Amino acid sequence: MKFLAVNDPVNAKTLVIEGWVDTYVILDALDYYKNNGFERMIVTGIPITIYEFIAPYRNTAEASIYTLKYYGFTDTIYKANIPTNIFVDRTYGTGLMVKSLFDEHPEWEKEIDIYSVGVHSRRSRYLFKKALGNEFKVGIISHPDRTFQAETWWKSSKGFRNVSNEMVATPYAMLFFHPDQRFFEVKLKEGQWIDEITYLRKDKDIAFADSTLSPFSKEERRDFHGFHYFEPDLLYRIWAEIKVDTSSPPFELATNTSRRPIYRVYGKLAFTVHDTLCELTAYQNMESIDHPDYGKMLFVPFRDRTNGIQSYEAGRYLDVPVPDSTHFMLDFNDAYNPYCTYAQRWSCPLVPPENQLPVNIRAGEKKYKH
Length: 370
Fold this sequence. Notes:
single chain, alpha/beta, Rossmann fold, 5-stranded antiparallel beta sheet
């Protein structure tokens, strides 16, 4: 039991709290942080897969961070949570997420103390060491597990289950676990990207169904059952080159109504889709060019070969931040429908002829209704 529930801190400046632990562990970890000279805190987390709809948290890191703030912690808390596409070897994946934080902060000392609980502690430290590499010093603090008596663990089902599981899992990790780190890192980044898109889409559904937030009328909300999307696809996350040219005079952009908003051409976007060289014109709304938020965005309406079949027949839109270099990431997974696809009472800019793409863009929002 003591072999598994190991205590061996290295007096690091960074405390890593495993965010899946119970609240009583988090509170004691907070006291440990305050009393041992730490300078920064990282909270790890895994996706919440039970009762996930009763609170606004999508992973245990977010929930644990809220708990820490509820009890008065005001310093910066760094988050290292794994995405929903990671189902196995999650502790190792969490260690890689912690490593990515250190990569972003090269000034941090390469040493951590992990605050874990009970018999999971030795395996946590081993897998974090494997993820972080030999240049890191990794300590461990094992908080007592109060769900069973440690001295007589075999006398309760919880104690027997926890200890016997770690007696098998820990030697397995040490002897037989040889992960492909590069594969894991790619999968983690892809999962973060997919989660971000998925959460934004779910938030949009919720907002459009909420009478206090939705642009839909009461009758339109009655028929609303969510939007439809292509699955997130990295093939449509594309490096594009922009050639800025704002020399053309502003013009009136045609809409489906008599409204004529004033835009100007900002530049041309060149990129390749399915081995086909494509080009789109990016526009800037002159009526909001001085707005602190909207003024930093470019409007890229487009049509493609999915229009009228899988996507809205009149085309779709992209909002692109004004790039700070000649090359940037153009993500068609963010493509959305103009509001006039939902109801004809909206006034929407029409896609100019030059923004017709000769390819299928199977990404972003689909048709609203058939």
